[in-house]
Amino acid sequence: MIFNVTHTTKYEYNAPVSYCHNIATLRPRELPGQQLLDYSIKISPQPAELSERVDFFGNYITRFSIQTEHKLLKVRTDSKILRDYSKYHESFHSPACKDVTLNGAREVMKGMDPDVLEAKQYILESIFIKRTGENIRNYAELSFNENRSVFDASYELMQRIYTDFQFVPGFTSISTPIWEVMEEKKGVCQDFAQIAIACVRSVGLPARYVSGYIETLPPEGEDKLVGADASHAWFSVFIAGFGWVDFDPTNNQIPSDQHLVVGWGRDYYDVPPLKGVVYGSGKSKLKVAVDIVPAV
Amino acid sequence: MPTTSTSWLNSYCTNYDNDELYLPQRGLKPYWKKLFNGFEKLGASGLMARQKDIDWLLSENGVTYNVYNDPKGMHRPWNLNLIPFLLHEKEWQTVEAGLKQRAELLNLVMKDVYGDRNLIKNGIIPHEVIYGHRGFLRQCAGITYNTDKHLSMYAADLSRGTDGRLWVVNDRTEAPSGMGYALENRSTASRILPEMYSRMNVKRISGFFYELNQLLVDASPGKKENPNIVILTPGSHNETYFEHAYLASFLGYPLVQGNDLVVRDGFLWMKSLQGLKQVDVVLRRVDDVYADPLELREDSQLGVAGLLDVVRRKNVSVINPVSSGVLENPGLMPFMQAIAKYFLNEQLILPQIASWWCGQEREKNYVLQNLSQLVVKRIDRTNRESIHFGEFMSTLQLENLRNEIQLRPYRFVAQERINFSTAPNLVKDTIEPRNLVTRAFCIASGENYSVMPGGLVRVAPDRKTIRVSNQRGGTSKDLWILEDSPIKDDYSRVWQKRSNASMSGLNDLPSLTAENLYWAGRYVGRTLVNARFIRMVMQQMALMQNREEAPDAVKLQVLFKAVTHLTDTYPGFVDKTKKGRRAMENPYEEMLSVILDKERTGSLAHTIEMFSNAYYSIRNLWSSDMWRVFENIQKLWYSFAEGQDRSINRILKVLNQLITRLIAFMGLIEESIMVQQGLLLYFIGLQLEQSMLTITKCRSLLTIKYDEQVEYDLLEYLLKSHESLNIYRYSYRSYIRLEHVLDLVMLDLEYPRSLTFMLNRLEKDIARLPRSKSNNHVSAYQKYVFDAFSKLRLAESSTLSGTTTDTDVVREELDSLLAKLSDLLYKTSQSITSTYFNHTDKQKQLVIQSFPI
Hints:
- The structure holds two protein chains of two kinds.
- By secondary structure, chain A is α+β, with helices and mostly antiparallel strands.
- Chain A has two domains: about 1-80 and about 270-295, Immunoglobulin-like; about 85-270, Roll (C8orf32 fold), CATH 3.10.620.
- Helix content of chain A is about 25%, strand content about 40%.
- Chain A contains eight helices and 13 strands.
- In chain A, strands 1, 2, 3, 4, 5, 12 and 13 form a seven-stranded antiparallel β-sheet that branches.
- In chain A, α7 links the parallel β6 and β7.
- Chain A is globular.
- Chain B has 26 helices and 22 strands.
- The relative contact order of chain B is 0.10.
- By secondary structure, chain B is of the alpha+beta class.
- In chain B, a hairpin with a 2-residue loop joins β17 and β18.
- The longest helix of chain B has about 30 residues, at about 30-60.
- In chain B, strands 3, 4, 5, 17, 18, 19, 20 and 21 form an eight-stranded mixed β-sheet that branches.
- At the A-B interface, β1, β3, α4 and β12 of A face α4 and β22 of B.
- β12 of chain A pairs antiparallel with β22 (about 845) of chain B.
């Protein structure tokens, strides 16, 4: 399927900002099953300079500075994405994937294959997912055990998070620590993704954080609301010997063609859509709108 | 227990078998013998006298080391022990070669881990040692630099092991400190022990600083001949701030804080008085993660947003590059031998402390079994708080540590606990052995590295302590590398002329420094004027019958209210407090608070504190005389504030001394700092403050009409507090009259304490500011001062002193003139601030977060 994605971020300030430096992780990356056909970024006011580079994890990073005084910052990206991911679903159920047990995966992870080496960094603690305690490990071990298939265990973990956790927007912020989410069992997609990652890492396997979009389908007979789509996040597990498999605990499914990947990292910290340093004295109000329209 | 043959050393005995004085076969090392023969002539009292000289010199020069949360306060004096630490050139050659090799290896490790990571791919180092280290900054991967060496500066802590060799105990790569202290120690030691210094053939270290300067110059993008170089400090609260300021003034580069720098158009700029000035090289003393709030720690106020991007574009060089912290990594130690083989096919020249990285099964088990004999560190936290000494830990603590290691073994390294060598240290009148650690310094020099032939030796505070660290209050030593033949003097003086001229002058003054100078002027003016006024008030209080009751006399009421107006300590004597209390009911209590309560904004104590802060943060501009007088002021005030005596006599005495010392200090400032260095800003601040306070004084004492006798007394008070009574008597030889007082204090064009004179001077001074110079229009602050000056010139004392009708109580003319002047000067200050010290734009995060990286 081909999608046109429009992602608009607005910051309104109650006092003028004299200048700002920003970093955006908004340009979708390419991967098997996803191609970027077209992309543009529009920023107002006009940035004094803008540059793009590929970061440590292979994501596209756009850096820009605005040097004119402003009270409104608007960043809009238009991406045209060809997504054809469902064709991989079958392979997840093949023996090559399903038969990898936790023990087997741990053994492979001791090796030095380039894939394995690359994946190893996703076992270690990261900025947001650190010092996780026994409750995480205990929660993980309800699904993971030594002789069980890693895929099955991950799938079950996804299901359990979907069932056990309540989707409550506004309950958490990006600074809510993992243990608090675990205790309260409430949060949004990025919290669920990070809980899952913490669990997978606690049993010694690599897991990464995937940031992107999801197309929401309106209830039957109703029109789709503009801006109803959203930024989304899920997690991915490295099944040693097979490869990375994504899981979406918020929607209890393996991502398919409605999931569009922007980037990935160890956790949210590595792939924030927009961050920056602003020089001014006022407060800001944020508005984000995402529209995903299948191209005809 | 060996003893020595020379009589002076008879008392020196050491229980340790590893002392610097002795050869393994128990013989006294000849060069130590030579040193002690020299000490023999001085005798115990001679040595103690020299030590006293050192202590005095260091305190005179304001050499300090800040200790966070130290009950003794900030700015603890630096200690240097008279007895140097000696090493012979022959032994040093090995150390030098070993340090160069190690610096090069770490340089190659840095290039590799931020580049292709072959060390990991080829299994030379386990990935966790790098990826699991919080100093591994993924943001910096793939950056290429202007310098051939990525690691430009390197420091190693060395100690002598029981095998008689010097071992590497720690690697310092992020922003190694100590070079400045080593330089200061050398300059002090060579002054206090001149005869020994020359007889012992001590290698000079000034050549090393020449190379350091060259390193910075050569690092500039595009190899500019006169690059703009700055030294970036976290600020005056940093523990080694003295050193930052010392190096800045030694090398002749501006000392700046993050706030002074800004990124625009892909370049780094310094905010100077004139405007933005491009910066080519930054010698930074700010830690990696604080260097750039855009890409690293978001809540950092110490760095510059966007700095990494400028580095990436190769438009600036930061020394050491941000990201070098990953090399401060004891997890690398067990692999250094393999790294040396991999990169250079060499053996390590210098032995290193035995280390076990817990990320390996076998090593981990060894560590867990022998925990109580080991020293455990995190691979990425080598500060003392994070070091666990097994031998001092309880069973429970050991158990907790064991669990912590097992949970995330890759984070931990255990090291052997060894008895490092001791060396003689002068303690009162005896010489005692103390453990020591030597920090040696290494910098890139062309394609090689250079090692400072000297270093910073830190000594344990007492006999039992093995841990050595400045924070624990030990002392330091100078390190003398000895040659057999006399030293030829080097080119120490020659090169300083060369250091760049392009950064000097008022235009290039960093705006934060300018602001500090301006406020220094304002606070010193405020302290002086207020101290004089309060002194005069206390003199009147001394005559009062009962100081703890409301005064009957109108003149005293007016005087007390003036104190509140002048110090801006409302409600004070003017109004009742929120709880309904009136200070006037107990003037003595309120005066004590206005003098001593440093929590109260406007109090004398508070003003003195603000004055000290402003001065301390520009200490790289000071002369040592200034430091001495400044210290004197601090000591005077401290002993008063801490003491019990609150009698009027005591207060008057302290105020007298304070005023005298302030005046001495102000005189020194004028002769020690050049106008181009920013003295102009100080003068502007001083004149502005004194003018404003003169206006306030006149307003609170003169604008209301009282009885003739009351008025007479008030006029006398005013002249007294203004130090103008004698001048008045000399000039007018008459009964004190308001008209004459106004003429003298406000309108006289020649008298330096008159308002007109001060504004005239202010007008001339501000005209010299960089942005006053455009030809056809004057800047806002110039207009305000000009306006104020002309209003004064047009005023007549006869009109000002009258009232509209005889029954009026308020002198409308005078009051409205003073009100206008006050308003104009306030606007002047605002305008100067916004034109030159624009720090009002607060740095904020788009998305608020603060996570330790």
